[in-house]
Design goal:
Elements lengths: L15 H7 L7 H4 L3 E4 L5 E4 L4 E3 L6 E3 L5 H34 L3 H32 L10
Antiparallel strand pairs: 1-2, 3-4
The structure holds zinc ion (ZN).
The site of zinc ion has 7 residues, from loops.
């Protein structure tokens, strides 16, 4: 692929490229809380914070508070993320519903056909487009300048 380094979003919130790897060990409840905010200290230290969290830098002792970000701005990002995450969920539900329908009507062969086709369709067609749109949407969002407290 070789695309990993491209299209990085602003540092104030999660970037598309890094998200992918983080997803596996994201804490439950992250979806409700919204995407993490990448804070870079003046000394260069970095930390991902949830909205509302504050962080005291280990190296220089400055304290950064994500509450300085206006709530309605963060809300926009959260909504955007939720909207984009709803797409794969909705799609999976549709495929599952069709599979259940075929199973109930005794058409097991169609289920075995539908599942691989659905998966291949998702990975080759829908997912790349969806991901690109999400990155574009996120790169239009603001980045904030926090002040140390
Ligand atoms: Zn620092």
């Amino acid at each position: 692929m070789g695309r990993r380094g491209r299209g990085r979003g602003p540092a104030a919130h999660a970037e598309g490229g890094r998200r992918r790897r983080r997803r596996e060990y994201e804490a439950p409840g992250t979806i409700l809380k919204g995407p993490p905010i990448a804070v870079t200290c003046e000394c260069g230290a970095k930390r991902d914070l949830a909205y509302g969290e504050s962080w005291t830098c280990d190296q220089c002792g400055r304290t950064w508070n994500t509450k300085q970000i206006p709530a309605e701005q963060y809300q926009e990002i959260r909504k955007l993320q939720l909207r984009y995450r709803a797409v794969p969920v909705a799609l999976a539900s549709v495929i599952a519903a069709i599979a259940i329908f075929f199973t109930l009507t005794g058409n097991i062969f169609s289920v075995f056909f539908l599942m691989p086709v659905g998966l291949i369709g998702w990975f080759t067609l829908v997912r790349p487009v969806h991901r690109k749109r999400y990155r574009q949407a996120i790169s239009d969002l603001p980045r904030w300048d926090l002040r140390p407290e």
